[in-house]
Amino acid sequence: MVLNAKNQIQRRPAIAHGIVGFVLFGASDAFAQKIEASVKGDKMITRTSKKGSTEETSGQPSCINFSMDHFDIIRFLSAGTVGAFFGGCVYPFAYKRLDLIWKGKDVISIAKKSLLEVFTVGIFANSVSMGARGLLTGKNPIEVLSHVWEEMRDVTFNDLRVWFPYNVLAFGFIPISIRPATTSLMESAWQTYISLRSNAYETNHTQA
């Protein structure tokens, strides 16, 4: 089964990786929506004090039931579309290009490729992903641009902490033919974080 999947990827790489990207990015956004719904649920929970008054409680996300009433299908499809684009087009091209620039698997070449990926593909992918999500869900372009600008410093710092170790592993050991798929798998976790930051407009507005 694994061999057959690998053969399909090799025959139709763009389509195969695009589908993987759509599914993984969409799933990560669905998970992010569940987290957000849980946090909002916690903030709405009230408890009665001894005096009979109520007060808002805060704390860790609760395990409230997540129904379709909480699910934003447009946001989900937007995330999936972004994933199909990056999984099918951007990642295969970027990793192949970096391998051509610095051939070999010596420590110096791997380190250079890993750092360059973070500060080129990483920044590009994160900014486009966050911007596209906002625009595709109908937000004002100026608001989207401002939000992405505010978020990018912390996002880039976290990108370096997460993706540099993975890049070392990818460039050093993972075959090129399946690297976009493993990258999309990493992205499914990373994009949960990006989805949360992409849709934190209300939080940033409150802090401002």
TrEMBL record:
Organism listed in the record: Stephanodiscus triporus
Keywords, comma-separated and alphabetical: Membrane, Transmembrane, Transmembrane helix
Record's bilayer topology term: Multi-pass membrane protein
Matches recorded under InterPro entries: Mpv17_PMP22
Family: Belongs to the peroxisomal membrane protein PXMP2/4 family.
Cellular component, GO, one term: membrane
TM spans (from-to): 73-94, 115-136, 160-178
Protein name as it appears in the record: Uncharacterized protein
A family per Pfam: Mpv17_PMP22
The organism's place on the tree of life at top rank: Eukaryota
PANTHER family: PEROXISOMAL MEMBRANE PROTEIN 2, PXMP2 MPV17 (PTHR11266)
Protein location: Membrane
